[in-house]
Structures are given as structure tokens and as C-alpha cells.
Design a protein that fits this description.
alpha+beta; 2 domains; 8 helices; 4 strands
């Protein structure tokens, strides 16, 4: 995405995010946008909306399907996007809104990579440690399995990583032996 597109996206998203925080609806809006984003990713709707061969009327119909979201803020935002013929940028706006909400609330989705699936009690014990070590609030824990870690785990959120895997420890030992 170039600077021009990003400037247009910010023109729409920053006032919307500010309004979301003023109304205290960041949690609700974030969850609803996550659902919309999942639909976009499963159906490649972003490609459809950004395709120049697709008529604006068709793009409008597609976006209107999301307007009954039980959130007046989201419904109004979609209406503004439709009226200003910016459907092609809607997915990028969704991503930016979620990023801004995370950044301003300091509440992030945390990814935990491990060899085996973590139990619910392990996840609950990890949350306070993650919040303390990374200086953020945990919105949700997303787990990924990675057999190459050998053991331990790798935690990632907000461009920060905690690597407590055996693979990393073996790499450090190997480097120290050189």
C-alpha cells in the first residue's frame, strides 16, 4: 500500500476510532469487525471490492450485507464508505481500525507457539505473565502448534517476542561454543 492510499485510509479510520473510544465501544466494535474480517478472508471479498471491473452498485450491495451488525457506529461507517465510493479500501480500513483500537487500548491478540496444545489452565497462568513481561493486556490467546520448537513456547504480540523454546536455547549454546 502506498502513502496516498494509506492517507485516504487514515482519513476515514482515525475519526471513526476516536468516536469508538468516546462511546466506550472498543471491545464490541473490535469483535464485530473481527467477524466481518473473517468473512472477507474466507471469501476473498477484498479482491472483489477492489476489482475495477466490478460495478459500484455490486460493491454497494456486498457492503450493505454487513450493515445490520447491531452496531450503529459500524453501520454508519459502512454507509460513509459507500457514499464516498471507497468500497475498494474497506478491507484495508477494517485492518487499520483494528490496529488502532489495539494500539490505543494496549490490548492485543497474543500468539503462542508450542509443540503441544496448551490446556486452559496453562493459558490462564500464561496471561498474567505475558501482561507483565510485555506490558500489554491480552485480548485473546491464539495458539499455533510448531513441532520444530522441540519444547517450550514462543509468545508474540505487538511486534514483541518472548522465545522460551528449547530450539532457541540450543541455538544459543551452539553460538557460545563457536
Amino acid at each position: 500500500m502506498d502513502k496516498k492510499h494509506y492517507a485516504v485510509i487514515e482519513k476515514y479510520t482515525l475519526p471513526f476510532v476516536q468516536l469508538v473510544f468516546e462511546k466506550g465501544q472498543q471491545q464490541d466494535v473490535f469483535e464485530k469487525l473481527s467477524q466481518i474480517r473473517a468473512v472477507f478472508e474466507e471469501t476473498n471479498l477484498a479482491d472483489f471490492l477492489s476489482h475495477i471491473g466490478v460495478d459500484d452498485g455490486e460493491k454497494e450491495k456486498a457492503l450493505r450485507l454487513f450493515q445490520n451488525s447491531d452496531s450503529q457506529l459500524i453501520d454508519n461507517f459502512i454507509e460513509v464508505v459507500i457514499l464516498n465510493h471507497r468500497a475498494d479500501l474497506f478491507y484495508d480500513m477494517l485492518v487499520e481500525i483494528q490496529h488502532q483500537i489495539e494500539k490505543q487500548s494496549n490490548e492485543f491478540e497474543v500468539t503462542v507457539k508450542s509443540v503441544q496444545a496448551l490446556t486452559d489452565s496453562q493459558k490462564e497462568r500464561l496471561k498474567p505473565m505475558i501482561e507483565q513481561k510485555m506490558g500489554l493486556k491480552v485480548r485473546s490467546l491464539k495458539q499455533e502448534l510448531d513441532a520444530s520448537l522441540i519444547g517450550g513456547f514462543v509468545i508474540s504480540a505487538n511486534n514483541k517476542t518472548i522465545d522460551a523454546s528449547i530450539k532457541r536455547q540450543l541455538q544459543l549454546v551452539k553460538e557460545n561454543l563457536k
